[in-house]
Amino acid sequence: FDTSPEAVKLYMRYNHWIPKVFLFFFILVDLSLAIFEKPAVFPVPTLYTALVELLCLLVFSLRLVHYAKVIPRDKFWKDPKNICIIVILVLTVVDLIVYESLEAANCYAVRWSRVLRPLLLVNVTEGRQLRRAFRSIRNALPQIFYVFLLFMFSLLIFSLMALKLLGKRGLKTIDGAPYFTNYLEIVFDLYVLVTTANSPDVMMPAYNASFVFAIFFILYILINTYIFMSVFLAVVYNNYKKYLKEEVRQLVRAKRHKMVRAFAVLQEQRAEGGEPVVTQTNWNQIVKLVAFVQLADLLNIEVITLKSRPHPLQSAFDTIIVISALIATIINSVITSSQSYTSRQILDIVFILRVLRLIRVVDSIKRFRAIINTLIRIGPAILTFGQLIIVVYYIFAMVGMELFKGKIQFFEDGSVDPARAYCGNPLLKGTAFAQLNYCKNNFNNVVSSFVLLLELTVVNHSGFAAVTHASARLFFIVFHIMVVIVIINIFVAFVLEAFFVEYSVDKGDLQTSLEKKIEEL
Amino acid sequence: FDTSPEAVKLYMRYNHWIPKVFLFFFILVDLSLAIFEKPAVFPVPTLYTALVELLCLLVFSLRLVHYAKVIPRDKFWKDPKNICIIVILVLTVVDLIVYESLEAANCYAVRWSRVLRPLLLVNVTEGRQLRRAFRSIRNALPQIFYVFLLFMFSLLIFSLMALKLLGKRGLKTIDGAPYFTNYLEIVFDLYVLVTTANSPDVMMPAYNASFVFAIFFILYILINTYIFMSVFLAVVYNNYKKYLKEEVRQLVRAKRHKMVRAFAVLQEQRAEGGEPVVTQTNWNQIVKLVAFVQLADLLNIEVITLKSRPHPLQSAFDTIIVISALIATIINSVITSSQSYTSRQILDIVFILRVLRLIRVVDSIKRFRAIINTLIRIGPAILTFGQLIIVVYYIFAMVGMELFKGKIQFFEDGSVDPARAYCGNPLLKGTAFAQLNYCKNNFNNVVSSFVLLLELTVVNHSGFAAVTHASARLFFIVFHIMVVIVIINIFVAFVLEAFFVEYSVDKGDLQTSLEKKIEEL
Description:
Oligomer: homodimer
CATH architecture of the largest domain in chain A: Up-down Bundle
Order of helices and strands of chain A: HHHHHHHHHHEEHHHHHHHHHHH
Number of helices of chain A: 21
Helix content of chain A: over 70%
Shape of chain A: globular
Largest sheet of chain A: 2 strands, antiparallel
Number of strands of chain A: 2
Strand order of the largest sheet of chain A: 1-2
């Protein structure tokens, strides 16, 4: 490292909070461009969005150049994250130019580089947590893959048995379509059964024919839904623990290393041949220079401050609630005095805020506090998962919008358009999708795409194969594998681990249990 | 213990495999009486079933008397399982007499003691594994209860918010019913949302009104479906591990104790004041008397035999498949020669059996073998869980049949009855339940009850509230709590633990890892 005053100044400037916030703001702007680009929530000429995007790219480039000046050249070029950013920037510019020129020539064009946008969030220097999460996923992938192969094998065998068992009986689904006659259809149906989305529906025709067939489905659900899904969780959890172990080990090693270096800086040789010591004056000087907590931060030591009751959440929580209730009451009285009628809505909000104070009561019961504390401790990690989810959702939303935009239309409540009954797509006439009024579950803009993807995370229903092509199902299967099998399981593993630590901490001392955890790992 | 030859003989007779099999056979007969009792799959006069049940009760009583003679009197009366059996037997006899006399007088009567039948399976001496499983559940209950209270608190608060937020907007569900206006309905709907059964449906009216409301549901799903359900798993898993630890500790202690006692029997004092020793002759004598493995069994030592490849599963599996394929081929050729046409069905079975041999190929790949081995090792435990599930299902099926029998009717495929469109119950006219042709999901007999309960385990749909009373939903909620939150989570915890042991074994030696496991616990 260069330790000249200028370099340090540059470094300090790089690490200042203002440029960081600035950077995140522009990433946010870049990501939210999807709201204004076609298919848009609020349509805006493409030229404007392109200009804003160029501005964002400029900011990212400047930040990258700054970073390149801060750290040594060879280190900069060896770091994959910098190369990633450069590639993303170049590809985006190329895509922008191609798209704008095609647009000008009235040709069909796809803004494919939008898929790359969320990757900026990952590869920026500050996205350390997010990169760690992605690395943890990457490490788990091989083992997940082997289990997945076995799962696919079991799925294919069960589908074959279903075809042989049920295919030639001339059964019909409720739509009147032939039941279980096409192998690929069966594979898809049974895959969806694993997500429990079509749970009784898929077996009803067979079960109506004879209850013996129910045994086949029971066996399938036991093996694939319960056992294999648990195995996925086990594999992800195991890898997560292994990875955590590695992280803790590295942290401990780094801490030790830094301590030794800090000592080397502070030490002085008292006597010839004697042991080197840190003098009191030196120590006081450094303590004066930096506050103790900052020092700990410098040395990467976690300082565990014992919580004094009432704990910070409570007071912060109380303050927020009381202040918001106050504001709501003030607004209410202003409205009342000006329009001489009481706004029911705002009174309701005040009421709900008061109800939320009940959480304090619950928190004061010891049994509950342990659980709530753990939930709060999970908080920051949930934010990392949130970013992770947003990155993945954004990519899927971009792809989904290109594939499915405009296929399904939503008609407002008052609409009398006859197309409203089938979501504006004749192919959906009489399907359960249209009957259940799912029309707003579409990929027509980025907001509805996100909501739809969230629904797909909970339950994987897919009416989109009907409006495009059977291969569109691949999109939903890939989404399920990526989000439900991998990311949600990591989330569950995380919650599990947090609770196990909590339970083991409950019994003993925090410090010793942490140490034991580290040793054990 | 009485060690007179007579008592030992009696004990040997009690522990002989024939009476054990006999007992299980009669328990099976007793349980399967539900097939013939009203509401029956195969109706039979109540007198016959009553006689068969009396016979079963007689057998159970005899077995109990035998057991009472084998073990000391005070021990017998202190054991809750014996008292349980006596209470069950007495109650069943009382119920039988009351029911038969009411039946004779043409009064309405309920065979409420049928609920107690599966408890026999638990309380019989041989149901040790099952009792252990129940004990483990009982131990986990207090902690589950605290989390459940918090979960209910969150559910109630969210419901209140939903009522305030959405109740006065005049929204309608697809059935045209008012949306989110009744607090209890909201609580139920949001509870079902946790099971993901009504996932997009419940939010569609609000989402159609404005996408802002989707945020409410997203928050709800994040907190209640993902976090709270993971916390339930964590609590159950943690208790399971704690319990396992206790079990292993007791086993180790018992083993040590028995070893000491065995040594005391075998030892002889060689020299005055010298250490007691076991002479070779004594040792050979005992080894001659009992085979080594039996000896190990006697001392409750687990003998770990190193598996020699090809492992037992493979050969047994191969044999079964080859023999069944052979039998199928023979039957096929017999049919062909007698009727001069090839039975497609049987050829298909032969084909599927051949496909199943593919499992061997998969098993021969090392990566997969580790996973498959673990799955096989889980096998016996799955049987215990199977019994557990049957006990719980049986109880719910009995209660469900009394509550809901005949409410929903299933019409065979050729039926032209107009009632077929609404499952024979006018209340179901136009509901999704009837539209999706779920009519066979009913409590009209014990077989369909079991299949329905299995479906409810996977996805908790409940059309039954419509045909009886809103309070019927309680039945489904209780079922969900008991089966999905408690039992399925124990099953998942079990699979997880099995895989963690497998992964840690993979790396080191089996023996040491087991020892480490015990020490660690």
